[in-house]
Automatic annotation (TrEMBL):
Species of the source: Peptoniphilus ovalis
Name the record gives this protein: Protein GrpE
UniProt function note: Participates actively in the response to hyperosmotic and heat shock by preventing the aggregation of stress-denatured proteins, in association with DnaK and GrpE. It is the nucleotide exchange factor for DnaK and may function as a thermosensor. Unfolded proteins bind initially to DnaJ; upon interaction with the DnaJ-bound protein, DnaK hydrolyzes its bound ATP, resulting in the formation of a stable complex. GrpE releases ADP from DnaK; ATP binding to DnaK triggers the release of the substrate protein, thus completing the reaction cycle.
Pfam families, per database record: GrpE
Claim: S-adenosyl-L-methionine is one of the keywords in the record: no
Source lineage: Bacteria, Bacillati, Bacillota, Tissierellia, Tissierellales
Length: 182
């Protein structure tokens, strides 16, 4: 073999090596493209899964906030009811004191002012005295303690209020103790 042939041979080998390298690069690129496509599909799935998790967490958080706000308002309402239930006997005692005093007595006016002030505070919190005298007996609003014959009222009507009842936002806070006609 001549030098010329050797050079051609070497050139051919170099060309072949370059071609082989080029083919390998193409194969690598093709494989990378397939991997990129798979990665792209995987990343779309991952994105969808992450978005789903995010949406669920967001909904859970919203529900948590709503539930805690509701519980908080229920605790406040419970606290108000508890304090007011402790204050209602004080209001009853003011009324008993007023009933036992003469209107001309100096203490009468002072006790009445304190009772009215307490009544205003309760009213500001949505607590009002229920009307019971002369209305039809309602077991949701009244607690019947006595029954009596009455010419003035039909059967089933409240003829006397023994202890006043109170409402809080149109719900019974304390039922009125009443005497009912038969």
């Amino acid at each position: 073999m001549t030098d010329k042939d050797k050079l051609k041979n070497e050139d051919l080998k170099d060309d072949q090596n370059e071609n082989i390298d080029e083919i390998e690069d193409n194969i690598d690129e093709s494989t990378n493209n397939d991997e990129n496509i798979e990665e792209s599909e995987n990343s779309d799935d991952k994105y969808s899964n992450l978005m789903d998790k995010f949406m669920r967490l967001q909904a859970d958080f919203t529900n948590f906030k709503r539930r805690t706000e509701k519980e908080k308002s229920e605790y406040v309402e419970l606290g108000v009811k508890k304090v007011v239930n402790d204050l209602l006997p004080v209001m009853d005692n003011f009324e008993r004191a007023l009933d036992s005093l003469n209107k001309e007595d100096a203490a009468y006016e002072g006790i009445e002012m304190i009772k009215n002030q307490l009544k205003d505070v309760l009213k500001k919190e949505g607590i009002v005295e229920m009307e019971a005298l002369g209305v039809e007996f309602d077991p949701m609003l009244h607690h019947a303690v006595l029954t009596e014959e009455s010419d003035e009222y039909d059967s089933g009507y409240v003829i006397e209020v023994l202890q006043k009842g109170y409402l809080i936002d149109d719900k019974t806070l304390r039922p009125a103790m009443v005497k009912v006609s038969q």
